[in-house]
Amino acid sequence: MAQQLKEIRQLLQQKIFGHKSISNFNICSQAIFSRLNKCHTAAIGVHHLKCNKAGCSNQLYQYHSCNDPASGGTLIAAD
Question: How far from chain centre, in Å, is Cα 24?
Answer without folding.
Answer: 23
